[in-house]
Amino acid sequence: MKVILLTDVKKVGKKDQVVEVSDGYAVNYLFPRKLAVQVSKKSVEVLESQQQEKRDNEAKLKREAQEIAKALEDIILEFQVKTGREGKLFGAVSSKSIMEELKKVHNIDIDRRKLLDKGPFDLLGYHELKVELYKGVIGKIRIQLIGEDK
């Protein structure tokens, strides 16, 4: 019997996959647990519409990530940091503070776990951080650490 899996089933297949299973396995195990539905004209139409919806959503998310990456090109975040006599920083600028500043000043919200360069950033000057906004879409956040003598 051909069935469409509604969830991943071990040793059978992945979600949304059409697989051939024995009639008894389908009727006694998969259907009662709502792990699969029988292949029919209607179920195939529903599956195709769901897959098209998923592709459209993926394309939309990728477009949004590309727009954010383009917006990040023009942004330089400046941080005033306390320094000692020889220009050494007291502490460092964390990825959390960078993301908070980006949200506060430019209203761009990015999860700090998406940063590819973790830091800490403890040298004066310019730094370029890479952030993965979406699969294959890498944005660059530029920061400048400016020292203020203590």
How would you explain this protein's 3D organization?
- This protein is an alpha+beta fold.
- It has 2 domains: 2-62, Ribosomal Protein L9, domain 1, CATH 3.40.5.10; 69-149, Roll (Ribosomal Protein L9, domain 2).
- The chain has 3 helices and 6 strands.
- The chain has helices spanning 23-30, 41-72, 95-106; strands spanning 2-5, 18-20, 36-38, 76-83, 125-134, 137-149.
- A 3-stranded antiparallel sheet has the order 2-1-3, with helices on one face. Strands 4-6-5 form a 3-stranded mixed sheet, with helices on both faces.
- The longest helix has 32 residues, at 41-72.
- It is elongated.
Kindly give the count of domains. 2
Radius of gyration: 25 Å
How much helix is in the residues? 25-40%
Question: Topology as H/E string?
Answer: EEHEHEHEE
How many helical elements?
A: 3
* SS strand fraction: 25-35%
The CATH superfamily name of the largest domain is: Ribosomal protein L9, C-terminal domain
Secondary-structure blueprint:
Blueprint: E1 2-5, E2 18-20, H1 23-30, E3 36-38, H2 41-72, E4 76-83, H3 95-106, E5 125-134, E6 137-149
Parallel strand pairs: 4-6
Antiparallel strand pairs: 1-2, 1-3, 5-6
